[in-house]
Amino acid sequence: MDLDPLFAPGNMAVIGVSSGNDRHPANVIFFKNHLRYPLDVYAVNPKGGMLHGEKIYKQVSEIPEKVDLAVIAVRAEMAPDVISDCIRSGVRSGVVISGGFAEVGNIDLQDRIAALAQEASFPFIGPNCLGIYVPRRVDSFFLPIERMVKPEPGNVALVSQSGGILVDLMIKFAEERIGLSRAVSIGNKAVLNELDLLDYFAQDPMTQVLAFYIEGFGKDEGRRFVLDARKCPKPVIVLKSGKSPAGKKAVSSHTASLAGDYQSFSAALAQHGVVEAENELELVSFCESLGAYQRFIDGRIGIITGSGGHGAIAVDACSKRGLTVPAVSISDQDQIREILSENIQHIASINNPVDLTGSGVDEDFVATAQKLFALNEIDCVIVLLLPYLPGITSDIGSKLSSVSRQSGKPLVAYVPHVDKYDMLIEGFELNGVPVSPSIEGAVLMATALRRNKPC
Amino acid sequence: MLKDEIRNILSASKKWGWVMEPDAKHVFSIAGLYVPRFAVVNNPNEAAVFADDIGYPVVAKVVSPEVIHKSEVKGVVVGIETRDQLEQAFAGLQQIKGFSGMLVEEMLVGGIELIIGGTMDYQFGPMVLLGIGGVGVEIYRDTSLRMAPIDMNDALAMINGLKAHRLLEGYRGTSPIAMDELCKTLMIFSELLTDLDGLIETIDLNPVICTSHRCIIADARIILAKKG
User: Fold this and answer.
1) Of the partner residues A221, A223, A258, the one whose CB lies closest to the CB of residue B141
2) CATH superfamily placement of domain B4-34+110-224
3) Angle at B118 between CA B112 and CA B123, to 5 degrees
């Protein structure tokens, strides 16, 4: 099945608009795409008529051009007819927003629309989903556009079994300024599931990182997913929910008790180099750092800080996550000391972490970073920046970013996130360096670079 | 490809839903894994003849389709040194429900007790497990899991993934276990497990006793798939 029309449609039909109720999901979808997105949009309802001056087509087949994407928001029992009509009219893809299928026990109805689509190679997302969001391109979410928080275009694709979680993740992406390539709420995944999207996004030039929120796979689908993910040259991140067993089954086997559903899930992911995020914070941090850097590191971290306490917390977080913070040799320490400004030469604590104290200036951070990046024993630097220190300017982000770029090694920054420090944060982010609002988050970003590795 | 001999053993056990220890040991022996020398006997005399042949000490265990967990019904007698003790063991085990024979086997001394297991996961198919074994296996919960089949690197990573892996490498004067034998055992097991997809639900090899020379399956249990 060709999924291109789903993610880059030239036009869209919204089936099920209401001429009397503008809160109807189909109306929301129709108007937001009609007014805000660069594609032609057609309204469809068998009753016909007009929708605020726009013609309502009675059938998809009446639409004067071939339809790339049909967004279907009709009552569940009408879905088979509507899908048959789409197939007959040569519609190239679909999103079925409607609920009322397997999630409420109507398995037969869902199987019927899946069979229709499979037979005709008609790719559709859903049912019971929000569908597809591609920044500045297309948006099948039935959420009023003014209420949505929309991440900027970028290179991370998000796939979620839950629409609600997806929208929340998009808010977090926007907050952390992580760019999004595509977001897909797959709902009941009657036809297209995680596997299809993994295979498609692995080839998608707009996507460099694939992130999935997964509640559970179908029979043996987990196995196929991890085997495909292993072949995918891009990082694949998974957040799983439903980790605790639903109930205690009486098991007569030790192995069955030790190798529960979640244990097997987690082990299979790790075995095939899929990065498992434990929670939303991890998922967001992993997406941000793997969006910036796709090369593996061993996880030998150099830390530069303006405060001893920040350095100590970072070291603890590193060691908890299996990252090492190698000691710096005496001769390297001496060399670093020599290049520091005079007034901190005798108060800075120079090992790893390098603590430049509250009196360090931009040039001290830059010189130290150059030196640490040049050391063989270090393959990633975390800088803990306190923007309120008098010697730090808002240029430091772009200065440090350029040191990282020249060295070819990744840099991750911690900067407290308040509006006041935006310019400093942007100095990093516009230059492709991920910035976390917490020390723990910065360490997680480095962890992702280490974990993104076939075992 | 699953050997016919193995398939036949599994079919014959279907009526019980699981494969009893002697048959299970045959299965793993056919697959190329080590099991102790053993015999199933029906009277004290046969037991004594076999024990004389392999030499004391020996272990005696109940064979019964109704007993999945032998130690819970005192169905295992270890450290049998004499013919008298062997006869006593027979008399005791004979009382256990469903008694259909007594397994006599050489007693393994020394080594480290591991568990090697297999399950058929709904989402991921055959999964192989390695852990610190023995009766405390569900207390320690020190295990590594992988999708089967596994290669040499996976096997080594599984061993290194155990919290107690240093115990296997020789700790405070004990000699290290035969790592290559353990890896080989895991790989052969994982291949067999892959071939058993659809036929079984779980396998417990507990304990597998590893010494500096070899890994030997001291107890084995196969739970068959509910249907098929």
Assistant:
1) A258
2) ATP-grasp fold, B domain (3.30.470.20)
3) 140
